[in-house]
Amino acid sequence: MADFVTYLGPRIRRLRRDLGLTQAEMAADLEISPSYVALIERNHRPVTAEILLRLARAYKVDFSDLSEGTQEELQTKLRTAFRDPLLADVEISASELGDVANSFPTFAEAFIRLHTTYKEEQLALAEKRQDRPGASASSSGDPVAAVRNFLAARKNCFPALDSASETLAAKISEEGGFAAHLKKRHNLIVRRLPSDVMVGSVRRLDWHRKAVLLDETLDAASQNFQLAQQLAYLELEPQIAQAVEEGNFPNDNTRRLATRTLAAYCAAAILMPYARFAKSVETRRYDIEGLAREFGTSFEQTAHRLTTLQKPGQERVPFFFIRVDAAGNVSKRLNSGTFPFARHGGGCPLWTVHQTFKMPRQIVTQWLELPDGQRFFSVARTVYSGGGSYRALSVERSVALVCEAKYADRLVYSDGQQNVAPTPIGIACHLCHRITCTARSEPPIGRQLLPDNFRRTDTPFGFSDS
Length: 466
What we know:
Mean pLDDT: 85
Largest sheet: 6 strands, mixed
Radius of gyration: 29 Å
Order of helices and strands: EHHHEHHHHHHHHEHEEHHHHHHEEEEEE
Helix content: 40-55%
CATH topology of the domain at 140-271: Arc Repressor Mutant, subunit A
Structural class: alpha+beta
Shape: elongated
Number of strands: 11
CATH architecture of the domain at 140-271: Orthogonal Bundle
Number of helices: 18
Distance between the termini: 32 Å
């Protein structure tokens, strides 16, 4: 018995966690050093017969409970994971798997947990697609997703369109504004008509009457944006078409959405030419309202434009932009950086983008921290669309700009807030593994729920350690 040794690192660690003990507390109970406990848990030291006896005396555990499975169980799980078609081209022998399980059990457990989460997410996505009649198995079947991916891959920046728009903006300025340019270059006049005459349109190009028609309820910023977008269609069509061609979109719907998106991009670039806007951005320290006043644009238009300032050699702070309604529906999501919540983020109730509706038109700032420790700075405010006359329908939404914490001191909004504690948020409940969150609405994928017949946690869900 004195010569008996075995490696039980993962089992000892799980026992310690199930008992709610730290390594120092277990070490005290077993009369060994905390560093020795750490070495045992990492399988850098064996569990001797003497240690097993101390474990049995201290925690009333059966030897068979500790020895059952161990490395053989890990090897079996690893073999199963490596049979996944995703890893079919990875050649790994049984002896290599055994080496991983024996020498790096913590890594093996982490890999198994990640693979389990991946498989469950696959099933969840498959179920969602089945619930959508006619949904394509490919993301290319969703035009919105395809265009978002197209923009994200280019950091929402199109230097060629910026240059062309900047040249056009200079011509418009020289000729006295949009109306004068449209008349001189295209023999078109600008007319503002009542909503009932526009019949559901906010802008219409009427070649018969040689006019660009606008809904008279549009505010000045929206009217200018619509005129700029019309000019983008009239004069920048070749550049837009070339950019759309680079997307290799699979169908007309997606190409049309991409064309509309890039025409809006050009409209913003005409109203806020890259060089002048980028210079003002630094001078005003990203003061969105100040920039909007200078360029005659809306808060949302200006915030949106800030996500596009990534021209090589003239980069500014990379932002993530999101627009949500009071019900939490995301209607716009743009990304000029590498933000982890660019694809799924926006659903955490602890993020103040959802709380700005209580403080209309007020700037709300917040430091954010994701479960992996990444920190960000958020600027949010409500915006409105529609309206413009009595009883006209108006829609209130909230928009937020988010940058990495390392850029926050370049924003005027961060002044005096350097010592404010960050709010712990998640990308979305089903993707967030911060298990102590009391605002959680659903359990994260890959975690096992604890029964509550013995203990009810103060959070909505309790989770097992494995």
